[in-house]
Amino acid sequence: MISLAKPTNQSKGYVYALAIALVVVLASFVFESIFLGENSALQSWLGHLISAQFSLLFLLMLAVWHFGPKNQNLGDYRAIIIVGIIARIVLFPIDPYLSNDVERYLFDGYIASVGLDPYTVSHDSPLLGEVISEWAPPSEHLKYVTLYPPLALALFTFAASFGATLAPVVWKLLVISAAVGTFVLGVNILKRLQKLQHLALIALSPILILETGIGVHVDAFSTLFIALAIHALLPSQPQNEESELPIRNLVIAGIFIGLGTLSKLLPIVLLAPLTMHFMRSSFKHAFSLVSATLVTLILGYLLSFALGLTPIGSIGVFFEKFRFGSPFFYWLEQNMSLERAALITSVILITSFIVLSILTWSKHWKLFDNNSVVTWQVALCLPLFFSPVVYSWYLAPLALLVAIRPNLPLLVWLGLMPFTYEVLGKWICCNDWSPATWPLSLIASGLSISIAYLFFKRPTKPLERSADTLINRVHTQ
């Protein structure tokens, strides 16, 4: 799928940044030992060390982007492709320490594998008997049933079927494979779009590397399916119009969006800008995309019901009771009741998607035009920005899309979000989950300043402003 010719000479800054980036990734082995208690004195600082690791890798990613090749010769990107793959694979032996989601995933899978319904049977159910101690699901989530969509549960069940000892290994193998697959697809997408100069934003993305290799989150699969959908929509030649896309490509893209939604709900929002885009030029294309997505979703949920599951779970409880990483919702709750905050965010979210759909329908942009890609980014950003709960791994699909169309606010959000890991040290050493508010202030300030910069720096249309960054002027598209 990828062929590499002999690279031309690279700048020393590029090579040094790549080498240091790999060393920063390997520092995860040191952090794992701290997490396991081999240096208990540093456990309370682990959250800050992790934040520093994410930040340093993010800065090195920008350095490689700046100093790296600017041409479309794939051979010149050999070093970064090799480092990108190694950085994902080398983390395979590490025990997850960024969260305890894996234990929850696999116990959900075990519950399903023994014929029970994890959407109605909580982790502390008497039906589970002594196996609770064997699988050791997170104690703080024992009373909650699962909230993951059917395909995610199917993946958990497959891994859990290997038993409590091997299940984590199988799960990590699946996630690492998804991460490598996403990276390979990303390389091909950028090559087809003649945007290889942005490859560093995928190859060295801290969220795509560390959240996959250490966090081992199910978001790796939704990101993979989004990459597959985008790949299916690529024109055969850069100059071709999307109206020339075969219908089967739209059907394939719709299936992948549906599968992504069955693994994590976020990918469904891509239908809004994509459908309105195709509606303007070809109703048949729009209908094919939407119908393939909906049929995939319906079949996935019907299969779940046929297996005796009720795939709703605790998602309502999750948004009602949990709060993390959302500056906007935090500010709302500090100034009004939960009911009013939920109403306001719902109204803003619905209105934003209506405006985004109308804007996409009314503009004559090509499918992979910079402005079109920005609408995809906005569609993915909106539910995350207005959600009461945002963890850094939720941004994985955005880390993929930022390489197709870099823009300043999105880069700032990706760079600042991992500072929320400051809470991890107190949680590991002292079982104290007390997130500080300063990361929220930092994220809010960074986003506000970056958006203001774009709106006042250049007198262009609002959507175009969102992608005009100082770095982009160096990396001409």
Explain how this protein is built:
The chain is built from 24 helices and no strands. Helix content is 64%, strand content 0%. The protein starts with 11 loop residues before the first helix and ends with a helix.
H and E string: HHHHHHHHHHHHHHHHHHHHHHHH
Structural class assignment? mainly alpha
Give the termini distance in whole angstroms.
24 Å
Estimate the helix proportion, in percent: 55-70%
Largest sheet: none
Radius of gyration, whole Å: 22 Å
The residue-averaged pLDDT reads 89
Compute the number of strand runs: 0
The global form is globular
Which residues form runs of ≥5 with pLDDT under 50?
Answer: 459-477
Strand content range: under 5%
Number of H- or I-type helical stretches: 24
Quick take:
With 477 residues, the protein is mostly helical.
Break the fold down into its secondary structure elements and pairings.
Layout: H1 12-26, H2 28-35, H3 46-67, H4 78-89, H5 101-113, H6 131-135, H7 150-160, H8 163-192, H9 200-203, H10 206-213, H11 219-233, H12 247-263, H13 271-281, H14 283-306, H15 315-321, H16 327-335, H17 338-362, H18 370-385, H19 396-404, H20 408-416, H21 423-430, H22 438-457, H23 462-465, H24 470-474
Helix pairs in contact: 1-3, 1-4, 2-3, 4-8, 4-10, 5-7, 5-8, 7-8, 8-10, 8-11, 11-12, 12-14, 13-14, 13-17, 13-18, 17-18, 18-19, 20-22
Q: Which short descriptors sum up this protein?
A:
single chain; 477 residues; mainly alpha; 64% helix; disordered C terminus
